[in-house]
Each structure stands twice: as C-alpha cells, then as structure tokens.
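The instructor's notes for this session suggest beginning with a concrete chain rather than abstract definitions. Hand out the sequence below and ask the class to guess, before any prediction is shown, which regions might be ordered.
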Amino acid sequence: MGWWSGLSGTAGAAGPLVGGALVDAAGWRWVFLVNVPIAIVIAALLARHVPESRDGRPAHRFDVAGALLAAVGLGGVTYALIQPFDGGWTAAAVGLLAFAGFVRVERRSQAPMLPLGLFTSRQFSAANLASFFLYGALAGFIFFLPMQLQLTVGYAPLATGLALLPLTVLTLALSARAGALTARIGPRVPLAAGSLCCAVALLLAIRVGAQSSYLTDVLPVVVLTGIGIPLITPPITTTVLSAVPDTRAGIASAVNNGVARAAGLVVVAALPLLAGLPQDAADNPATLDRGFDVAMLICAGMFLLGGLVAWLGVPVGDTHHLSSRAAVSRCWTRTVR
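After discussion, reveal the predicted structure:
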C-alpha cells in the first residue's frame, strides 16, 4: 500500500516538473497530447498483465441516472465557483438539485454507483471526510505554488518544476516506510503527524514572494510537504479499505478516489474566489501575491481540519487484524446492524 500510494503521489508531484519541461520544449498543448500514447501503453499493459477480478454476485445494469446526476452536480457547483457573477447562481441551483436527485436515486437503485450504506461505518465516513479536506488542501497547494513561483518570484516553467523536485523524491522515498509504519502503529498517528507537517509547510509558504530565496523560503516548504504527504496517503487508503469487507474493496477504493478528485476540483475552483483573486490576477503579481497568502492560510486550515477528523474518527492501534477477511466482515456486519 505504501509503494502504491508513493508512486501515485510521486506522479502528481512530478507533474510540475514534466509539465514545465513540456511547456518550455514543445508548448502547453503537449501537456494534454502526451497523455494519449501513455494511455494506450498503459491499457495494453493492464489487459495483458493484470488478472481479472469481479464481484461474484449477479450483474446489474449500469447506474446511468446516478452517473449523469453526479456529473451535473459537480459541473454546476464548479461553474458557480468559477463564474459566480455570470450565471453562477443558476448553475449552483442546478448543481445542488442534481446532488439531491443523486442521493434519492442512489437510495432507490438496486445497483447504485455509490452505495450509501458504506457511510454507515464511522471509520469509512471519517476517512473519506478527512480525505476531502486533505486532498483538497493538497490540490490547492499544488495549483497555487507553481503560479506563485512563476508569476511572482519569476521562475521559468522548467525551473518551477525543478524547484518542486524534492517533493517528488521525498514522496517516493518515504511512502513505503510510511506504509510499514501504518501497519505497525495504526493510521491515526501518521495521519495527524502528516497533516500537521503539511499545515506548517503551508504557513511557511506565506513567506514566498517576489524577493524570496529558494534555500530559505521555498525549499523548507517543499521538504516539509514531501515529508507530510507520505504520512497521509498510505494511512488514509488503508483506513478506507479496512473499513469494508473484501467484496466491497473495489467500490470503497473508488469512492475514496472520487472524493479526493472531487475535493481537488471544488477547492481549486473555490480558492481564487475565497482569496479575492480577479480573473486577471496573472497579469498583476502584487494581487496574486496577496491572494496566494490567503489561499495558503485556507489550505493550512484544511490540513489541520483533516487531521482533526482523522484523529477523532480513525480507530487507535495497528491495522494488521483488519486485513483479514473474516475480521473485516464481522466489523462490517456489526456496523450495518
């Protein structure tokens, strides 16, 4: 789990470096085009090397209504946050109504896209709520820091990517160890420690400005975040999967991944509005600098809130016993009852 989380986190953290190199060498459109051959290769490798696994229960039809309502809900809310004064209220109303319809459909569906019964588990609910705050804060940080480095500090795109390289290296190097630590002492302490570490990093990020030094202002932020992320990703994933029986591991993982992606979407859309950034902030470094400080404070608060949720909602102790199908099934049965 640590290696899987580490590689996933490394891929995200490496984005600014690879993206910066592509922008400098070939132009911004290649940030999108490069994914096409990668996707083709990955699809071929998956088809050839990954064994098939499926739920043994009878198959049901695809939850088309749930998928459409979820997409409309996320789209409406996101549009409202990005364009609050250009049809934003209408989009927000449509999005909220779609979410209400989504919940209604999922409750009545025989094969829901999101089985709401999963959330009767306190551990599952707490882990996903913590995921929303933690991954949302991380997305805001990864979105804003490269812009601050390029537009306010004056770094080139490739130099921005290189500035964040320690984050990538530390995430890959420490994730497996964090996974082993989680198996030994349980997820609660690593989650709290990682959340606190990232919160401190984002508070230090407020010092990053026009006259910043990389060694004294930027590097401490990157290093602390690179230490904090590996303490978050393996424990949160382990907590989610250990909260359900093995037959529900796939849907539990999908729910947690969806929560993380939705958190990033909503937070990145909302932060410019909350930070008071106008749409032309990229042309005004002083305005961007002030908005960056506000955004980092908000994201630091989200890290602390996510850590608090994890501390209160995640069980104490090691997770070894939870890897047993029988133990998880008994826990799940008690939770549902």
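Then share the key points. The chain has two domains: 2-28+118-336, 64-112. Residues 2-28+118-336 form a domain with the Growth Hormone; Chain: A; fold (CATH 1.20.1250.20).
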